[in-house]
Amino acid sequence: MNRELAAMITLAHRLVASGIHGTLSTLFAARGSTYRTLGAMMVSLPGTHAGGISGGCLEEHVARAGARATQDVPAVMLRFSTHPDSDDDAPILGCGGSIDVLVERGWTRQQAYAICSVAVDLKLSELVDVPNIVVSAFLPLDIFG
Q1: pTM score, two decimals?
Q2: Which one of 4, 49, 114, 115 has the largest count of C-beta atoms within 10 Å of its C-beta?
Q3: Cα dist. 120→9, 17, 22 in Å?
């Protein structure tokens, strides 16, 4: 696991513990060249973020615009492209492609832990009494280093 994912988990835990509703942004669709692969994620609130959905030029804009756009709805789709007339104040991508970013807001404690659960390796530990099984979650220690 990389440091970026560890930072996302840490920020998500801080947001849940404080009761502040942050946003989870996911690179949902891409056309042409992009800096990140589909599924790239970012946990954020205006002024701070962990993870990333682009090469670094969109993250703060997505944090601010996503927080504003999701005040009254649980999710929005933001679109960015290389076309200079694509949106009023949206940064323009330099990679030659365009992306759609799904921004979700307002996690419950259970939702935040579900998001963080992507960081662990799940393994069947015991298969004795079908359908009852034991599943173990392994969290690599190197994310804390």
Answers
A1: 0.68
A2: 49
A3: 11, 20, 22
